[in-house]
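Field notebook, page 314. I keep forgetting to write these up properly, so this time I am using the form the group agreed on. The chain and the ligand, NAP, are recorded exactly as supplied. Prediction of the bound pose follows.
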Amino acid sequence: MPAKDKVVLISSYKKFTESWIKAFKEKAPEIDLEVYPDDTMREGTKFILCYDPPKGVFQKYPNLRLISSMTAGINHILKDSNLPQDVYVTKVNDPLHKYDMATYALTLCLGHIRNMPVYATQKRMKEWKQQVYQRPEDVEVGIIGFGSIGQEIGKLLIKNDFKVNGWSRSSKDVEGITSYFGRDQLDEFLQKSSILICVLPLTKETQGVLNRDLFNKLPEDAYLINMARGTHLVEEDLEKALKEKKLSGAALDVFSDEPLPENHSFWEDEKITITPHVAGIVTPESVLTSLKENYRLINNGEKPNDTVDVSQGY
Ligand SMILES: NC(=O)c1ccc[n+]([C@@H]2O[C@H](COP(=O)([O-])OP(=O)(O)OC[C@H]3O[C@@H](n4cnc5c(N)ncnc54)[C@H](OP(=O)(O)O)[C@@H]3O)[C@@H](O)[C@H]2O)c1
């Protein structure tokens, strides 16, 4: 009898392991899910599914073909400088997950223009004070990192009457949205972004991009939403920009240090909305279909879907 197909799960987040084992048993019984370090016969492993793997672990798999990230980000894989050559790296690119990211962004944009964070503060102070609100059609939102998730966010925002611009490395063609691209067009894009949403991947070029210089190019009272990675943001620069009223507020889903330490000053800042990295949570149910398809493609010697360019870092 031929050996059963096999995927090895390598994750530092043990609490998710059970749900992945259960999902594979129910929805992909033709594939055995083995969990590192208890997996067997490593020379037969072609497919690794992982989050935050230990450094050097991939070297233990001589016939590896695919490293599949359990999230849309891949930094946790690329931090391994010993990544094997000629192995595909893929990220999550799932419609449900992207939709979750988009509804998160929409919720925050609507909350901001209807002053919800201000009313949360007023409630604590038992203060009854009506604030002036804006309508979506009068608000221009800039999406910095206009890729797969950014475009999904943009489409949902224009459906809800916001004006939307996107900025990426290369030009994009999305109906109803103006595409800005490259360094030369960044300033013009920023000048129009009353709300700036960051969904850039974390690379050498994008680390620390949300800094004082950038904030100074935004319109007065701009609002920042960072739902990409914590180290895109220079934290002291945000605190200064809020203090100086350059920015009117910020919503942060991601932090340099997660969970955000108890003594972090962000907790005390009424102008900062904090969510615990929940903009889009990948569930095995939502991505299993695409994983199975990639397994099939790899077995057929074909290129899998949703590969990333390791040399670019995203
Ligand atoms: N908070 C959460 O729960 C959560 C969940 C999922 C993902 N995320 C974050 O969201 C990020 C984006 O995911 P995605 O799937 O949308 O990635 P993606 O499809 O690769 O899109 C990235 C976009 O950023 C642009 N970009 C990259 N480097 C750039 C640079 N130096 N200058 C200008 N533009 C640049 C790319 O431009 P081109 O298109 O021109 O290449 C692309 O449009 C992930 O990396 C992850 O960090 C967060």
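OBSERVATIONS:
- Residues 27 and 215 are 47 Å apart (CA to CA).
- The radius of gyration is 21 Å.
FOLLOW-UP: compare against the apo run.
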